[in-house]
Prior knowledge:
Layout: H1 4-17, E1 27-31, E2 36-39, E3 53-56, E4 62-64, H2 73-82, E5 88-92, H3 95-103, E6 108-111, E7 128-131, E8 133-134, H4 140-149, E9 156-159, E10 163-168, H5 171-195
Parallel strand pairs: 8-9
Antiparallel strand pairs: 1-2, 1-5, 2-3, 3-4, 5-10, 6-7, 9-10
Enzyme class: lyase
Function: Catalyzes the dehydration of methylthioribulose-1-phosphate (MTRu-1-P) into 2,3-diketo-5-methylthiopentyl-1-phosphate (DK-MTP-1-P).
Domain Class II aldolase/adducin N-terminal: 6-189
Amino acid sequence: MMNMQSELLDAITWAASRGWAPATGGNFSARTAQGYLITASGKDKTRLQEEDLLLCDPYGLVIDGMGLPSAESELHAALYRLDARIGCVLHTHSVASTVLSRRHPNGIEFTGFEMQKALQGNKTHAATVLLPVVPNAQDMTELAASVTAGWPMPWGFLVAGHGLYALGDDIASCRRHLEAIEFLLACVLEEERWQA
Ligand SMILES: CSC[C@@H](O)[C@@H](O)C(=O)COP(=O)(O)O
Ligand SMILES: [Zn+2]
């Protein structure tokens, strides 16, 4: 059985290997008893080491580890404080999430995809599910306020022109949500290309 550090590192390496964390983009965290474990800022996510994971308290203060936490650590902290069910937050910068979040500032609807069933609470392809989009901001208090205003967002949301935040009650379910949402976004992007 993997410990939480190894499980999170494994998820990050996997996401980076899919091309979803280019040029140091993306940040990744998991809830712990003391707060949350999060990636240090500015690291190449394809070569992350154990010492690149910092332990923060629920308000984002680093309590173990060296270096600066992710520039978006405050948003991760706000998410863990907002909803006790969130156990993991995986943030990526794929081409599909970046392009589609710019084209659909009011959110992206998925309908008719079998893959929707990988998203918690969804039992049929026939439903329509909305992936919310919030405006981007460099100020994390402002970004967190936009996310809070749109709550609940059970499995993730997009930040316009920026990327995807996938959520889950643990690392495994968050990985599933990340992969399913990226798959659905790739399908929608492909369909939009054909319609153009
Ligand atoms: C390479 S631009 C991406 C950053 O501005 C940010 O959005 C990001 O995802 C990574 O920041 P980081 O501070 O490394 O966690
Ligand atoms: Zn980012």
